[in-house]
Amino acid sequence: MPSAMTTTGFLVAAVLSAVTATAHPATADRPELAFSQREGLVLNIFLRQGATAAHLVARGGTRPRVVVAFPAGNSGAELTFAPTAQPVVWRGVGTPAAVLEQDAKGRPLRGISSVLDITTPELRPAHAILSSIRIIRNAQAGQEEPAALRAEPQFRDRTLAWARDRIDGAAGYALRLTVLRGRWQDGRLVAAANGHIRLRLTALTGEVPLTPLDAASLLTPAARPDRDARRKLAFLSYREKSLAGSWRFNTYFGRDTLMSLRLLQPVLRPSASEAGLASVLARLSPEGEAAHEEGIGEFALLARQGQSDAPTFDYGMVDTSLLLLPVLADYLDTPAGRQRGSRFLATPIITLNPETPSGRTGDLVLRNLRWVFQATESFARAPLPTHLIALKPGHPAGQWRDSDDGLGSGRYAYDVNAVLAPAALRAIARLCDRGLLAPYLNQSDQGALCREAQSRARIWQRNAPPLFALRLDQSDARQKIAAYAASLGISAKPAIAAVGPQGLRFHALSLDAQGKAIPVLHSDEGFALLFSEPLADDLALMVEAMMRPFPAGLASSAGLMVANPAFASADLQARFGSGAYHGTVIWSWQQAMLAAGLDRQLSRKDLPPAIRARLVAARAWAGHAMRSTHTLANSELWSWRVSHRTGQPAQIRPVAYGAAAKDADESNAAQLWSTVQLGL
Predict the structure, then answer these.
(1) What is the pLDDT of residue 556?
(2) How far is residue 247's CA from residue 139's CA, in Å, rounded to a whole number?
(3) DSSP letters spanning 563-576
(4) What is the DSSP letter of 507?
(5) Cα(679)–Cα(589) distance, rounded to whole angstroms?
């Protein structure tokens, strides 16, 4: 099989030519993309010029480090420094430059050179990793990098440098620090008389570069004129694939691709929609599962014991495989999809998993369809909690809340079972009704398939959501809200006032292995708003549960919380704090999904006036929340802190995620599905 970097991507020739037709070549005198962004302790510097794309991350505070991430091969370099007595502050000086050099064997290395000014008396380099971003990411989680990847530093003429080949002998990686102001002394950087260190950081990779696209190649003129979102979308968009997020997820992720396609659908060019769908289909497993993440470059080499750099694929998630058909069906229901759908489904795709046969787009759709039928069969026959679609054995996560605590130790996720499974079945029925699957099925199979998909969808929709239903009486709910608010140091009055005589009703985040509900309120009702048409009463329940003031609901002055553990045990509350990756934090795309889902529901003609009024009010709140947090909206997620002002109640204020020591990690400054507000 050819190298991963020469074959990965959207793979549909007709689609590629359409997508790239309007791409602009890089100019020689200035970068096509060069911008910076500060989030809390972190300075982010982005550069794309010609074949070079790089993201430099400089984290300050008392545990400083720098990371440079390259989309090429999902490769990069990290340099950590010894803890400092005083907080370090990084500042970029001038415009970063694209660098093209040759290694000792004359092979090209591409990268970035940037001048950094550092406010600190001294810095001592501690440890460098030059490899795959996956290796760097794992190292931050406590996994030591393999000994074969280590490079010894070399010092010469005010420059400290690391360099090594890739483990298969191919062109590898380099990192250099050259002191411009200050000095090296006893293995440490010492500030100049003004208390600053100035250095030039250069990082390089030998991995094969990707082919860049710009936002104009992807978006119609109807897209919002949000400069920051457009720049980040462009940085993450390549002919071969879209990147999920930089720096930590600098390659293909199936779920991120699909959700971005769906939420950007109103402003995406048809060729871009088809290219994104094809990128997911090209990575299917033989059984029809959609890949969550790919392993490429040196990470793939390590996984294959150095024998090949062919990509590896992670099929550990269950939601991605259920998202594919609803997103596809929604695209094929657009005016452009109706015009182009048959031709798109007939287009050949070369698969990247060598065990999955290549074929027409429709053949691969059918492969995923069969997986959906197999996954939904048990519950359709006997709708019991333990017949729902569970996380895979040995996996603590299986949907977008993919941290270890994201589902509160649940095994059956609400979004997967109450929304996405019936949505996938309805999508099959829609494709059948339009006759789009006819060329890939015999006539008798098609009729049986349509009937079975419709029947199963009704069973799932009728029986799965009630398994997650929770109710608290007024007294119990108010007591729990008051206690939780006190633990956070915020006022409980607005939240308590939102609890009426009927108490609270909401859907649990997940069920445990025995089918018991995990009582965490959540934002995943947004999936139901976007992918289904709930009954009016169910719609009211979903929207009211989210729109109550936090901590009765999810609505806060920092945005829409993705989880609220006020009604759970103290142990669960601790695991869903404001420093947890999927805790009481705000994810940009979840706010956008809420807005897009409300827009979809408001387009219905069958809603009673009272329900419609509630949706209109919720949509107004969502719009205000997105406007008030617009400076953070294109990053991955953000957190909050309590602000105290004399004579005023304590207020929740948004802050960058990763700005506090308790935060589990730092947010990606550029996240694919955080650019989706361009479509609203």
Answers:
(1) 97
(2) 14
(3) EE-TTS-HHHHHHT
(4) E
(5) 11
What would the two tokens of residue 413 be? 């996720």
CB 97 within 8 A of CB 112: yes
Number of H helices, E strands in the chain: 21, 33
**Strand 183-185 versus strand 188-190 pairing type:** antiparallel
Alpha-helical segments (H) within 555-659 = 570-575, 588-602, 609-628
Q: At residue 587, what is the residue type?
A: W
Q: Which helix (H) or strand (E) holds 34?
A: strand 33-39
Instruction: List the Cα angle 95/100/103 in 5-degree steps.
Output: 135
Burial of 579: CB neighbours in 10 Å, binned 0-12, 13-18, 19+: middle
Q: How many CA atoms lie within 13 A of 568 on its CB side?
A: 28
Residue 444: its pLDDT value, please? 66
Which segments of the chain have a pLDDT < 70? Answer: 1-29, 444, 646-647, 659-666
Tokens 């002394």 found at: 185
Sheet strands (E) in 418-547: 469-472, 504-507, 510-511, 517-518, 521-522
Alpha-carbon distance 393 to 376, whole Å?
Answer: 17
Taking the C-alpha atoms of residue 616 and residue 614, their distance in angstroms, rounded to an integer, is 5
For residue range 439-484, list pLDDT tens digits in order.
998 776 777 888 899 999 999 999 999 999 999 999 999 999 999 9
3-state secondary structure of 503: strand
pLDDT digits (tens, 9 = 90+) for 308-331: 999 999 999 999 999 999 999 999
Q: Give dist(CA 497, CA 481) in Å, integer.
A: 11
Quick one: tokens of 415?
């979004």
pLDDT of residue 421: 98
CB 549 within 8 A of CB 529: no
Non-local CB neighbours of 583 within 8 Å, separated by 6+ positions: 405, 562, 563, 565, 575, 576, 577
Hey, what are 295's tokens? 């392993």
3-state secondary structure (DSSP) of residue 276: helix
List Cβ<8 Å contacts ≥24 apart for 94-101. 95/30, 95/31, 95/34, 96/31, 96/34, 96/45, 96/47, 96/54, 96/56, 97/31, 97/47, 98/31, 98/47, 98/49, 98/50, 98/52, 98/54, 99/52, 99/202, 99/204, 100/52, 101/174, 101/204
- The two three-digit tokens of residue 390, written as one number: 């569970």
Q: What pLDDT was estimated at residue 631?
A: 87
pTM to 2 decimal places: 0.92
Q: What pLDDT does residue 647 have?
A: 67
Specify the pLDDT at position 464.
Answer: 98
pLDDT of residue 316: 96
Q: Token digits for 212?
A: 């860049």
What pLDDT is recorded for position 441? 87
Cis peptide before 549 (omega within 30 of 0): no
**DSSP structure string for 191-241:** --TTSEEEEEEEEEE-SPPP-B--HHHHB-TTS---HHHHHHHHHTBBSS-
Whose structure tokens read 């004579």? 647
Give strand pairing partners of 65: 59, 80
Q: What are phi and psi of 188, to 5 degrees?
A: -135, 155
3-state helix, strand, coil split of the chain in percent (to 5) is: 40, 25, 35
Sheet holding 65-70, edge to edge: 33-39, 42-49, 52-59, 65-70, 75-81, 125-132
Query: How far is CA 191 from each of CA 61, 199, 245, rounded to the nearest angstrom?
Result: 17, 11, 34
The Cα–Cα gap between 53 and 72 comes to 8
